[in-house]
Amino acid sequence: MSRPRVVLISMYVGHQGVPHAGGRYLLELQRLLDAETDLTMLTVGNRLNHEAATRAGVPRRLLLLGHEPGRSPVAKLLNRAALWLDTSWRHRRDPGMPSAAFILGLLRSKEARAAVREADVIDLQYSESIRLVRLLRRINPRARITGTFHDVMSQSFAREPRENPEEKRHLQAVAERSRGQERAMVARLDEVLVFSRKDAELLGSPPHTIVHPPLSTGNEPRHRPASAPIVVVVSYLARDENDKAARWTIDHVWPLVRANQPDAELRLVGGGASDDLRARVATLGPDSGVVLAGFVDDLDAEYDAAAVALVPVLQGAGVKFKTVEAMCHGVPVVTTTVGAEGIDGDDLFAGLTDDPAQLAESLCAVLADTEAAQPRADRVQDWAQDAYGVRRFEATVRTTWTS
């Protein structure tokens, strides 16, 4: 039996060592597709993806489209227009728009268009790529087109903080346009994949396939109750919601924890910290207990040493991979309602609240008695390793290749 011809389209590329959760999901998807299908991956040819293309784990056939140097006045003009659309227009009016540079590159590339025309399955990752479904249908009317919503962008826009009435009106309009676009995308796809039942309900009918991200190898060891009062926050700090969550924790949660547990340590683990966040941590001084660890090579060691994992996000949408990862490592988890969103299970958290005082209280309760907090974390680890294991992920994805 011949292998299905698959075109995977994403504006990001997964690779070994990728610093953000979405990239790690793509890495596992790329591995599966490269092993079991005739895969061509298309992505935008920006600097970040050109760097990613040199790393281990990228597909064997990866085409970077857009940002090619123009040889004629018309080509140069089109490149400038695409760049303007990808910056000014995307920022002001339509943050979820597909990359204009990518579209231009696709239309220019005979190799990319041929891959799309010959594909049995076109797999679209993230809303920016799914917005291309109408164009792709025209190029290949017979292909099975699937789309994976990593989050529901209309919900994310609706949760953005509004500092003034004008900004409130702008974000309401962006969220409403995004809802309309989501309805149109869902209607045109052959299969819709989401990470949670909550996202399926937000997107509405028809029924969707829930695919749990492959966040567990199944080999994570039992977590031993920590001997030191360490609170770990793992996130890609370059993302705005994670940067804001780190600042909110430092300002509103951590002083309450330290008042109760003077030797407690808060470790902010993850790359991409802004200069402002670095300066904020530096002003606290070494006696604050706040450590900006940045990117680490061995995340397992961070979880192993932690007494409790904190996921303090107040914005964004979709399943928070960092919450599930902590569960898979058997670490007690304290989180906000946004951090817990889309994770369906019973009695999963050592603390679940948006109130900073109650978050601090939950953290202190774990730090005071790590032995008592561990049995729940062990049970949750068993559940998470099964629900978010690689085998279940691969089995689910395979079902989407055929109607």
UniProtKB/TrEMBL annotation:
Domain of life: Bacteria
Protein name: Glycosyltransferase family 4 protein
Lineage: Bacteria, Bacillati, Actinomycetota, Actinomycetes, Propionibacteriales
